[in-house]
Queue: 2 jobs
Job 1
Amino acid sequence: MKGLILILGLSFAFTTVNAQTAEEKGLAIAVEADKRDQGWGDQKTQLKMILRNRHGEKSIRETHGKALEVKGDGDKSIIVFDTPRDVKGTAFLSYTHALKSDEQWLYLPALKRVKRISSSNKSGPFMGSEFAYEDISSQEVEKYKYKFIKDDKYNERDVFVMERYPQYKHSGYTKQIAWVDKEMYQPWKIEFYDRKGSLLKTLTQHDYKQYLGKYWRPARMEMVNHLTGKSTTLLWLSYKFKNSFKARDFDRNSLKRAR
Amino acid sequence: MKYLASFLALFFSLNVSAGEWSGNIAAEYRYFSDAPLSATQHDNYTSISIQPEWFHEWDGGKQSLTFTPFLRQDQHDDERSHSDIRELTWLKAADDWELRIGIRKIFWGVTESQHLVDIINQTDLVENTDGEDKLGQPMVNVALIRDWGTLDLFVLPYFRERTFAGVEGRPRITIPIDTDNALYQSDKENQHIDYALRWQHSLGDWDIGLSHFYGTSRDPLFVPGPVLTPYYELIHQTGIDVQATLDAWLWKMEVIRRRGADNTYLAATGGFEYTFYGVMESSADIGLVMEYLYDDRGAMASTPFEDDLMLGVRLAMNDEASTEALVGIIDDQDSDSQILSIEASRRFGNNWKLNLEGRWFNHIAVNDPLYSFRNDDVVQLELAYYF
């Protein structure tokens, strides 16, 4: 059904470009980006985070994780912390949903305890970084309302500039402005505006690589918090697709085994 | 012991260098501010502990071996100077089942103030009077993973006795406990084979667990005399634990029914945790915890928590040092007895962690099981290095 709507939306986009409102064009871009990123199935990743405070002092976090694409819903994922060593083996299981609350569990290895945790902390920092949970969770079309602003250039490349407005509960943002590459349909830059409407953070994405001949992933992400002067670099050290993961690899039992 | 030896043999027959090591080593200092009740006890205690972990997996992560020994050396308390195998387990995971053989720790339950449903492991009470530290339990465990939930079956072939502080240790029950001559209801004593099963399922906002245990009670009774002799009876315990996760509210409940030789009782803990996220435009979270603790044996209960209210405040700074604190008070509704506790921690650099703990016993009534601890207010500082 989603496919049909998608086709209608696209043909509409091609035939009535001039009559299209900014909102319709924004939505069409988001739908196209979503369509192009469908079918990746599953992935395994290694991530290094570099946290910097306003004095430039660094601290490092290393994680590895896996994710499963769920058709018609948000993705399932497990993230396991490798460093700092006191949280080694701590694992985070999440079922994301477009508009209803995500489901999240945390495994604490010292206590051998699986804790179901609230997903209302969407705007909270992920591992003390400048990335909020909502910045790293799967991006479903329904999560936002959209508005096309203008065509522009970003580092010599053609981009759409568009705004999106979170529709899910507990977002820390009123607005995001994204610079979306016209070829890849992936953002080069996103500005995040807080609940008061002022610019809070800027994300830039670097060194895109294409996987399976289709899916674009950045190797580096830089988030700067303009309010605190802190910043976080995410280095995606590896992406591995086609791991034959199943739903079973993303349950409470596999969370306890995640290492 | 033969059992243990065969596992050690299995462990060392593998190439130990193939796995990875992690763990921690820690120095701890405890200060008791009040004069001890016994002249053999002290005000200051230092100790060191080490808990390395060796882990090796193969078969694409479907099989693994884990070995976690633990050792503590205490300045004064011979009983607290002890070692244990926290874990020594072989795991085999398949699509719809998991098999684990060896020594492990299992946690069941949802509440914060006490863990009624959690029954598989014996409490390592010399480590901490909060009962969160456990001795490794030998077991065979099969988990059946189905659409209707996970069913765990346990066979527990060997019983571990509870650890108690020695004559120089603090806090401890005033009358010494004779841990060398424990008594059992079963003729097989600590060789009695215990059984347990647990069904666990997540249904939308609800996480539900149902469990049953038959075997030697982890909680000893005491035979009075010049010394107290622990007596371990055989029990049946049925437990239910439920958590509803509704936005920032976590509603929690645990109920057990325990049937011993000449006594059946019901105990329950229930309450909520509500979290304010990002308070005052910061990234800090503040959680409020409230739980009611009930035991239908009333004043005859073997635990101090028969009609008590727990109130707690949890602070998580969500900063790069993972600064956290939990302040809690458990208040007896029948007497004025109160336990106040503080737990706080912070990371320094990438490998160091500082833990602060404090516990204060106020107005403990003469008939309260905690009466022996009335002078044992304690502040504890631990510095741990993680590798």
Job 2
Amino acid sequence: MPAVSFYLKQEVLDAVRAKAKSENLPVSRLISQAVERLLESEERRRAKSRLLEILTQRPLGV
Amino acid sequence: MSGLIGVDTGFFLALSQKDKTALALFESPAELVTSVLVLYELQKKLREGDRPRWREALADLERVACVIPLTSGVALKAGEIAHDNALPAGAALIIASLLDAGCRTIYTTDNHLKRLELRGVEIIGLPGSDE
């Protein structure tokens, strides 16, 4: 898995460290999970939008 | 709205008719759960309705909702529910899948399911073809 480095505001880093400690996770794992959830959530939102567009083109018969 | 929300094929038909309740649920952050049988039924409806993007719609449905497979446990539960409530096979298999997944709220347009009384389960009827 590739490694990445980036900057965080001190208060964000403090909050992330506290959260990681409370969940007994490494900070890197917590951040990685958060990014994965964000991407999944955005994909889900796009999927909802496409599905609704297709379904509502005109009412489906029964 | 909280917890897992079960939806049947009729929910997606209601959505296609822009039913307000169905739209509100779909646009909420609720975690939707459905059955593989709904994929089958909705595929038929989409193709009968001449929707060239039916494959895309079904792939998106799987991203939007948790799709519960049929298992022997679900089949046995469906048999019990069908026997006790005189339900058709499809409706019984769908409701058994949703209950097996832990849904305690289920949205449906199916009149058989609307009449169902299951302890601890709220069945919410949507307007549909069955009416």
